[in-house]
Design goal:
Structural class: alpha+beta
InterPro entries: Kinase-like_dom_sf, PPM-type-like_dom_sf, PPM-type_phosphatase-like_dom, Prot_kinase_dom, Ser/Thr_kinase_AS, Ser/Thr_Kinases-Pseudokinases
CATH topology of the largest domain: Phosphatase 2c, domain 1
Pfam families: Pkinase, PP2C
EC number: 2.7.11.1, 3.1.3.16
Cofactor: Mg(2+); Mn(2+)
Strand content: 15-25%
Largest sheet: 6 strands, antiparallel
CATH architecture of the largest domain: 4-Layer Sandwich
CATH superfamily of the largest domain: PPM-type phosphatase domain
Shape: globular
Family: In the C-terminal section; belongs to the PP2C family.
Length: 714
C-alpha cells in the first residue's frame, strides 16, 4: 500500500476515516463493490486495533464473556485481574456513574464505574456493554476493556486530555475558530451516521457527551441510553395508549435524555427515532458556535442553571419547545458563520421530524463546507504567507494558555488551607467536655449513615462529612452538609476546611462560638483562595462566584448544637414528632430580606419569588458568593438542644429533600423503615427523587439511641 496507518488511528479522525463508512461484514459478503486497496485497509485497520490491545499486554481469557454470559468479544477483554488496573481520582460524577482517571496495564485511561444499586441498573450495564462491544469507529470513544463481574463493574476507555466539549465551552471558555468547529461537527455527524446505519439511536446527544483529545478531535461517548431502533419500535405510543398504562410510568421510562436538547416529539411522549438525534445534534452544534447554554445568554454552566430556573419551570420549557416552537438563539451570521451552516442547524431542529435531514445528508453538506473552507484558505495562504517567527509566537501563546487552564482540586485546597491556618494542631476538647460534666446526663448511643445522589441534575454539587468520635474523642461527634450553587467549588472546599477549623477552635471557645467562627473562617479562606487563583490566572473564567449553603451538627455528650447558613435543614424526632433545629435563610423570609437590604444588598421579586442581587440567589446566607458579600453573610444561626431519652433520631438534608418531602413525612418514613441509618437515608432520597425533586439530594440520618436493624416502628 505504500504507507502504514498511524498506531493511534482509532482516536484520530483524519486517518482513513472512509474505511469505517463501509461495513466490514458487508464488504466481505460482497454487498458493496470495493477495491482491493480499500479491502486491505479494512483488515489492516482491524489489525491495528488488536495491536493496540496487545501493546497494553491485556490477555483475553476464554471464555471472554461477562458473568451472565450475555456479552462477548473477540478483541476486548471483559474480565481483568485486579492487579491490572488502579483507580485514581474521580474526574466526573453524574447521576448514574463516576468516571475516574485510572491506570490500566501501565497506561493512563478513563474508568467509568456505573452506580448499580438495583437489578434494573445491572441489566442496563450489560446492555451498554453488549452495544459497546459492537462499535468500532474513529468518532466513537474507544472501549479498551471492561470488568464485567462483581463486585467492581467497570468500563475502561481511552483517556481524552480535553475532557468534554461542554467543559471546554463553559468552564475553560474555549472559543473554537470556524475550522475547528466545522471539524468537530463533521466528526460527530460521521459517528452518528455510523450508529444510525447500524440501527442504533444514541438518545442523549449533547456537548457533555462529546470527548475531545489533545488535538480537539471529537468522539461521541456515553451509550447508557442508546437503543437499537428495532427494540424501540416494540413500544409505540399507540400500543401504550391502547393498553391503558398510566401516563407517568410510560413517560418516565421512555422520555430519556437531557431536557434542553430533547426534540419536541420526545417532550410530547413520542418514541425516539434517528430524527430525534438529529434535533439534539442541531442544538449541540449551535451551542458550539455560540458558546452559550441553550435558552440562556450565559457561557458559564452554573449561572445558566439559575437563569433557566428563573425564566422557565420544567413544564413551561417543555411546552414552549414542543408547542410554541421555542429554540435556542441561533448563531449570528455577523460572527462569520456561513449562511449554509445556519440553514443546516435550522433544518436539524425543525419541529417536524420528517423535515429534518438524515446524517447521510448532514455529512455530505458539512464535508462540502469543509472542502470549500480548505479551498478558500489555500487561496488566501498563497497570497499571505506569514513569517515563520510569527507562527512560532502564536504556538507559544497557545501553549502558555493551556498552562493557565489547570484544574483546581478544591477539596485539597480546603484541607491544605485550613490545616495551614491551624498549624495542624488540635489541643482536644477538654474545655467542651469539662463544661458539660454532669454524671446524671443522658448517655447517647449513636449510629449514623448517609446517602447522596445527583437526582435530576447533570452534576453533583452537594458534599457532606460524617465525623463521629471527632479527634478520637468518644463524646464528640460532627456531621455536615454543604449544598453548592454556581458550581461545586465552595462545597468541595468547605467539606474539608470547616471540620479542620472546628477542631482547631475546640480548645479556644464554646461549641456554639466555635461553629460560628468555623463558618466565618471557611468563608474568608475560600474567598481568599479564589481571589488568589484569579490573580495567578489559574482561574480564567470570568464572573465566577461559587458558593454553598451549609448545615453542621455538633454533639458534645448530651448537647446538640446545630449551625445553619442557607436552606439545608436539620430536624430532630422527639416522641415521634419532628422538631425543627434550623430555619431556612431565603429571600422570601421578611426578616432575612430586611437584613440583606440593611447590609446594602439588593432583593427583587423575579419570576416566582424574592431573589438576591444579579446572581438571583434565593438564599441569603452562604459560604462564598463573594459578589454578594457582605449582605449574603456566612454567619450561621445556632440552636442548642439538650438531648434526652425522648429523642430518637436526627435528620440533616439539602433542600433537594425538603423541597418535596415535609418534616412530618420524613419522620414517618424513617419510623416505617428498618432502623439502619444508611438505608433510611437512601429511602428518603429515593422518595424525593420519585416525587420530582429537581436538585441534588443528600441525606444524613443519625440514631441517638440503640436500635435493632430489624426493628420496625409503626
Amino acid at each position: 500500500m505504500g504507507e502504514a496507518l498511524p498506531v493511534d488511528y482509532h482516536t484520530k479522525h483524519q486517518a482513513n476515516t472512509k474505511i469505517w463508512e463501509i461495513s466490514k461484514e458487508a464488504a466481505v459478503a460482497g454487498k458493496f463493490p470495493i477495491s482491493k486497496s480499500h479491502y486491505s485497509l479494512i483488515f489492516i485497520a482491524d489489525a491495528h486495533w488488536k495491536i493496540g490491545q496487545e501493546k497494553m499486554g491485556l490477555d483475553i481469557v476464554e471464555p471472554n464473556t461477562c458473568v451472565r454470559g450475555c456479552c462477548s468479544s473477540n478483541s476486548i477483554p471483559l474480565h481483568l485481574p485486579p492487579s491490572s488496573f488502579t483507580l485514581l481520582s474521580a474526574i466526573a460524577k453524574g447521576a448514574e456513574s463516576v468516571v475516574y482517571e485510572a491506570i490500566l496495564d501501565g497506561k493512563k485511561v478513563a474508568a467509568k464505574k456505573p452506580i448499580l444499586s438495583t437489578s434494573e441498573e445491572l441489566d442496563k450495564f450489560h446492555k451498554e456493554l453488549q452495544l459497546l462491544c459492537q462499535l468500532h469507529h474513529p468518532g466513537i470513544a474507544t472501549l479498551l476493556a471492561a470488568h464485567a463481574k462483581p463486585p467492581n463493574y467497570l468500563f475502561f476507555f481511552e483517556f481524552y486530555e480535553k475532557t468534554n466539549l461542554a467543559h471546554q465551552l463553559h468552564v475553560e471558555e474555549w472559543i473554537p475558530d470556524l475550522d475547528q468547529a466545522l471539524s468537530i461537527m463533521l466528526q460527530l455527524a460521521k459517528a452518528l451516521q455510523y450508529l444510525h446505519n447500524k440501527g442504533i439511536i444514541h438518545r442523549d446527544v449533547k456537548p457533555a457527551n462529546v470527548l475531545l483529545d489533545r488535538d480537539f478531535s471529537a468522539c461521541l461517548a456515553d451509550f447508557g441510553l442508546a437503543e437499537y431502533k428495532k427494540d424501540l419500535r416494540r413500544v409505540s405510543t399507540v400500543n401504550w395508549r391502547s393498553s391503558g398504562k398510566p401516563t407517568g410510568g410510560f413517560h418516565k421510562k421512555n422520555m430519556v435524555g437531557t431536557l434542553i436538547y430533547m426534540a419536541p416529539e420526545i417532550l410530547t411522549k413520542e418514541i425516539h427515532t434517528e430524527k430525534s438525534d438529529v434535533y439534539s445534534f442541531g442544538v449541540s452544534i449551535n451551542e458550539l458556535l455560540t458558546g452559550v447554554i441553550p435558552y440562556t445568554d450565559i457561557r458559564a454552566e452554573a449561572q445558566a442553571h439559575t437563569v433557566l430556573e428563573m425564566n422557565y419551570t420544567e413544564q413551561q420549557l417543555t411546552s414552549a419547545v414542543s408547542s410554541g416552537g421555542l429554540r435556542p438563539v441561533l448563531a449570528g451570521i455577523e460572527s462569520g458563520v456561513p449562511a449554509s451552516m445556519l440553514s443546516l442547524i435550522q433544518k436539524c431542529w425543525d419541529a417536524n421530524p420528517q423535515n429534518r435531514p438524515s446524517f447521510n445528508d448532514i455529512v455530505l453538506e458539512l464535508d462540502d463546507m469543509l472542502q470549500q473552507r480548505k479551498k478558500m484558505e489555500k487561496e488566501d495562504l498563497s497570497l499571505h504567507q506569514p513569517p515563520i517567527s510569527h507562527v512560532h509566537q502564536v504556538m507559544d501563546d497557545v501553549n502558555n494558555l493551556h498552562t493557565y487552564q489547570e484544574k483546581i482540586n478544591w477539596s485539597t485546597q480546603g484541607e491544605c488551607v485550613s490545616k495551614g491556618a491551624s498549624f495542624g494542631v488540635h489541643s482536644g476538647f477538654r474545655m467542651w467536655l469539662d463544661g458539660f460534666d454532669d454524671p446524671l446526663a443522658y448517655h447517647l448511643v449513636l449510629s449514623w449513615g448517609s446517602f447522596a445522589t445527583c437526582g435530576r441534575r447533570e452534576s453533583m454539587e452537594d458534599m457532606h462529612f460524617l465525623m463521629p468520635f471527632l479527634c478520637n474523642e468518644k463524646d464528640v461527634h460532627a456531621f455536615g452538609i454543604f449544598d453548592g450553587h454556581r458550581g461545586a467549588a465552595a462545597a468541595e472546599f468547605s467539606v474539608q476546611a470547616l471540620p479542620e477549623f472546628l477542631k482547631a477552635l475546640g480548645s479556644m471557645c464554646s461549641p456554639a462560638d466555635a461553629l460560628v467562627e468555623a463558618f466565618v473562617r471557611t468563608d474568608v479562606a475560600f474567598r481568599d483562595e479564589l481571589d488568589s487563583h484569579r490573580k495567578s490566572r489559574r482561574v480564567i473564567q470570568k464572573d465566577w462566584h461559587p458558593g454553598c449553603t451549609a448545615a453542621v451538627a455538633l454533639i458534645v455528650k448530651n448537647k446538640l448544637f446545630v449551625a445553619n447558613a442557607g436552606d439545608c435543614r436539620t430536624i430532630l424526632c422527639r416522641r415521634g414528632c419532628p422538631v425543627a433545629l434550623s430555619r431556612d435563610h431565603v429571600a422570601s423570609c421578611p426578616e432575612e430580606r430586611n437584613r440583606v437590604v440593611s447590609a446594602g444588598g439588593e432583593v427583587k421579586w423575579q419570576v416566582d419569588t424574592w431573589r438576591v442581587g444579579r446572581a438571583a440567589l434565593q438564599v441569603t446566607r452562604s459560604i462564598g458568593d463573594d459578589d454578594l458579600k457582605p449582605a449574603v453573610t456566612a454567619e450561621p444561626e445556632i440552636t442548642e438542644t439538650v438531648l434526652s431519652v425522648e429523642d430518637e433520631f436526627l435528620v440533616m438534608a439539602s433542600d433537594g429533600l425538603w423541597d418535596v418531602v415535609s418534616d412530618m413525612e420524613v419522620t414517618n418514613i424513617i419510623r416505617d423503615t428498618v432502623k439502619e441509618p444508611a438505608m433510611c437515608s437512601k429511602r428518603l432520597a429515593t422518595e424525593a427523587a420519585e416525587r420530582g425533586s429537581k436538585d441534588n439530594i443528600t441525606v444524613i440520618v443519625v440514631f441517638l439511641c440503640p436500635v435493632s436493624t430489624a426493628e420496625r416502628v409503626y
